[in-house]
TrEMBL record:
GO cellular component: cytosol
GO biological process: tRNA methylation; tRNA wobble uridine modification
Protein name, as recorded: tRNA modification GTPase MnmE
Role of this protein: Exhibits a very high intrinsic GTPase hydrolysis rate. Involved in the addition of a carboxymethylaminomethyl (cmnm) group at the wobble position (U34) of certain tRNAs, forming tRNA-cmnm(5)s(2)U34.
Family note: Belongs to the TRAFAC class TrmE-Era-EngA-EngB-Septin-like GTPase superfamily. TrmE GTPase family.
Amino-acid positions noted as binding (6S)-5-formyl-5,6,7,8-tetrahydrofolate in the UniProt annotation, renumbered to this chain: R26, E83, R122, K449
Subunit structure and binding partners: Homodimer. Heterotetramer of two MnmE and two MnmG subunits.
Residue ranges of domain TrmE-type G in the record: 218-371
Name of the gene this protein is made from: mnmE
Compartments where located: Cytoplasm
EC number per UniProt: 3.6.-.-
Binding site residues for Mg(2+): S232, T253
Organism of provenance: Solimonas terrae
Length: 449
């Protein structure tokens, strides 16, 4: 099996911050068994738990609990690991960490256990990221998707695609090596077929990754429109449907209200902006400036109008002033007050934030706009980084196809493009990764993971 790396020994509290029924301290590295043994006395056999007193270097008992020993390489990090499961007292856990440090360990950096697991080949990069995504998942669906990525679902698909690309590249290079004269690539049905298949598979993976990213990152929707059309009521209506899961993000300004909602499994950040209108008031102008900043960051604008007035001239002007490129969904609110109103234009929705009519259709439309079919669950979680890499691979593959299938083919360049596509895929699983990239990824993990 893999060689035990010569690293130092790290220690951290692995359980959640604060008081709890149980608290876990994890020690990993070459000295884990020695340090764990000094704290807990004799270590139990591999992967067995034993009840022990935990003592500091001077022999004072800090806590008591279960000790587990995972000898390398069969541990989370691939190194020797000792876990101390004590009572969930933050003070006692802290003393355990200090005791381990006094015996030669050092406090782990954020994500360092996962980073070691990656470096020791226990997980690939996409799987390591999925651990953090599972911990941070905001909906059940997002947690399930992250779990599937952790099991290697995304990695498996990326590997399968990489295999196809390797085969294609070998085919092109082979044909190059064995032909003296020009090859008519277009006439090569096997090649055309292979190219089509891999392009289709890549496009499908890209779509699935975008859905997975959506479940992880959610969908940022800005509520906007004239004052009093019912934006805040709509926010409360959408939030009310999922009251238990509504959270306020701390630190947001009062004037732009942000709510994190779970709308049938889709995490939506709904931003209620101050009503847009001309104003001389300095404070209101500032509120509007912030509203525009929020709009610039949104992925969809829910533009609310009063169903009784339909789209007024001012509404049209406000819509024209929205950031260019921001998709707009026009919502006619207060239909309970306008039962006789003509139906909204195609692509627009009618609802009543007050009584809830039309809200289901709105949520379905939000799923559709987010690229998720309602009720469809994502196959795995993904990050923007993964989607970007797949897009790069897609562009490279298209360029390769273009260079092969055009008259006056440039197969050497096509082979290069295929190689670049493979490098992009390798970045997802970490086969190609810079220290810089790894540093950035793992620094966003929590300490103890
Ligand atoms: P905002 O300024 O756009 O945020 O509008 P509010 O949410 O504060 O609503 C303005 C007024 O319209 C309030 O008195 C709401 O109770 C009312 N309102 C909002 N939505 C509806 C609706 O669907 N039907 C009815 N009848 N009244 C509504
Ligand atoms: Zn409001």
């Amino acid at each position: 099996m893999s060689e035990i790396p010569r690293t130092d020994t790290i220690v951290a509290i692995a359980s959640a911050a604060g008081r709890g029924g149980v608290g876990v301290v994890r020690i990993s590295g070459v000295d884990a068994a020695r340090i764990g043994g000094r704290i807990a006395g004799l270590l139990p056999p591999a992967r067995h738990a034993a009840l022990r007193d935990f003592r500091d270097a001077s022999g004072t008992t800090i806590d008591s609990g279960l000790v587990l020993h995972f000898p390398a390489p069969n541990s989370f990090t691939g190194e020797h690991v000792v876990e101390l499961q004590g009572h969930g007292s933050p003070v006692a856990l802290d003393l355990l960490v200090r005791a381990a440090c006094a015996l030669g360990a050092r406090p782990a950096r954020a994500g360092e256990f996962s980073e070691r697991a990656f470096l020791n080949g226990r997980l690939d990069l996409a799987q390591a990221e999925a651990i953090a995504d599972l911990i941070e998942a905001s909906t059940v669906e997002a947690a399930r998707a992250a779990q599937r990525s952790l099991e290697g679902e995304l990695s498996k698909r990326v590997h399968a695609l990489a295999e196809q690309l390797i085969e294609l590249r070998m085919y092109v290079e082979g044909a190059l090596d064995f032909s003296d004269e020009d090859v008519d690539w277009l006439a090569d049905q096997a090649l055309v077929k292979k190219l089509q298949t891999v392009q289709q598979d890549l496009a499908q993976l890209l779509m699935q990754a975008e859905q997975g990213r959506r479940l992880r990152d959610g969908f940022t929707v800005a509520l906007t429109g004239r004052p009093n059309v019912g934006k805040s009521t709509l926010l409360n209506r959408l939030a009310g449907a999922e009251v238990a899961i509504v959270t306020d993000i701390a630190g947001t300004t009062r004037d732009v209200l942000r709510e994190n909602l779970n709308l049938r499994g889709l995490p939506v950040t709904l931003v209620d902006t101050a009503g847009l209108r001309e104003s001389g008031d300095a404070i209101e102008r500032e509120g509007m400036r912030r509203a525009r900043v929020a709009l610039a960051q949104a992925e969809l604008a829910l533009f609310v109008v009063d169903a009784r007035e339909r789209l007024t001239a001012e509404d049209r002007r406000l819509i024209a002033e929205l950031p260019s490129g921001l998709p707009v969904l026009i919502v006619h609110n207060k239909i309970d007050l306008a039962p006789a109103a003509a139906p909204a234009a195609a692509g627009e929705l009618c609802l009543s934030a007050a009584n809830g009519d039309g809200i289901d259709a709105l949520i379905t439309e939000l799923h559709r706009r987010a690229g998720l079919q309602s009720g469809e669950t994502s196959l795995f979680s993904a990050r923007t980084r993964h989607v970007d890499a797949l897009q790069t691979a897609n562009v490279r593959l298209a360029a390769a196809a273009e260079r092969l299938l055009r008259s006056g083919a440039l197969p050497e360049l096509a082979a290069e493009e295929l190689k670049d596509a493979l490098v992009a895929l390798g970045e997802i699983t970490g086969e190609f990764s810079s220290e810089d990239l790894l540093g950035r990824i793992f620094a966003n993990f929590c300490i103890g993971k």
